[in-house]
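Let's do one together. I've listed all components of the complex below, 540 residues spread over two lines.
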Amino acid sequence: MLPKFSYVRPDKLAQAVKHLETDKAVIHAGGTDLLGCLRERIMDGDLLVSLGGLKGLAGIKETADGGLSIGALTTITEVSENRLVRDKYPGLAQGAAEVASPQLRNQGTLGGNLCQKPRCWYFRGEFHCLRKGGGLCFAIKGENQFHAIFGHDKICAITHPSDTAPVLVALNASVDVVGPAVNRSIAVEDLHVPPAEDVRAETVLKRGEIITRITIPAPAPNLYSSYRKIRARRSWDFALAGAALAFAMDGDRVSRANVVLSGAAPVPWRSTAMEEVLSGSTLTAETIFRAARAAVAEARPLAGNQYKVEMFRGMLEEELRKVGKGGEV
Amino acid sequence: MSKDDQDNRHCEGYTRRGFIQFIGVGAGVVGASLISQPFNGPVLANEDDQVLPAASMVKVRLKINGNRYEVLAEPRWSLLYVLREIIGQTGTKLGCDRGECGACTVLIDDLPRYACLTLAVEVENREITTVEGLMNGEELGPVQTAFAENDAFQCGYCTPGQVMAVEGLLRKVESPSADEIRSGCSGNLCRCGAYQNIFAAADQAARLKKS
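Okay, and this is what the predicted structure of the assembly comes out as:
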């Protein structure tokens, strides 16, 4: 049984914002992560503010510049199956299709997928870890085979669990945020907080703020986008290693490469080292080898997850070989 | 199935809870025709942007297998809890209670979802289908028939959830490929490992539904 909470389902956004300013108010969109977090006492929610009454926050529409505006309450299933998404950004459709299970994709929302709590068996278990206000990260010296190899700074080694966030970062997407003070737009790249900045926060969102839409700019000319996820089993699981690619292609030359890794770091991990090797290059065997090596050169694996370094390197090579070949190796 | 329900209700006293309010008949398959009032009125849990206090009982209108129920529920109660413990329809199973095993799978507006991770207040006025709703009177529906004929279970505990996942898949995809079947069943665990027979049952169910 879930702990007790009061409940409100406003039908106006301004009302939702007002309720969310209450102490210990939490947002319920799809609820798939929230209810688990409340049940496990990871989150403390006294007032559950349901967004279910806000009808304008679902659905996918084309923007004037040829990009897409996706309502935050659009389900992951809808994102994965939508014709516009599949045509313009196949990588996003692939990422959405790789999320969790059919049941969770039917319920979970794109906004919620960006805001979910991280995955770590200490954080999700009965450990009063650093991220929950305790004194240390148990994963750094503990059982860390599924943990981060990048960006943990030996502070907190969770991996960001989203399969859509890496793709949205690679596609230069932003989120529209409505809040009590001002409404603002935040690049998805700037949405998540690395542990070195604040180990208690997952996103930069402030109390009362709600993501209303996700906006993706028009696809670059000859955009190639893809998402690959390696996991321990085919049925639902989080990424051991994943990669979102968004390449602007000029013939067989990559004019601009965006590479964002999942299952890698406490935030969607942008591999600028790999992007630098690829941008302006033709994808020869030698470039592919150098690019994948550059991506893992900055890895700082922990005792139990050194295998991830080679896993990322091999996967990135495979993914680069598919570019321009219709997805076939 | 309905006998099972009735037994449970008598043994454990679900019907004696004073706060239960049924419009029509609670026991599942015979209620619909007794409802005369229209079902599109205001959602009671949402009147006037009102905060429902914790542990308060709120009237929740549910539409389950075509029957309408009005129950008193706390905001924190899951659809699974209300189905099993309040309404007394125990076909939907409690497994992990954390959205991982799929035993509680039901359809909401034809899409499979986990009833354990769905608040009852969140699915007011939506079309909820449980395994009880797949029966044709006393006859098994096509997916249930296919599961029986393909021996698609051992202990049977996960079966209602597996059946609902397959039912949801087939409502969306008429003739799923082997990959689509595996993907459609990927949110449901079977500890007995009857997966091969479950996939075969899904394949046969697609044909039975068309015939």
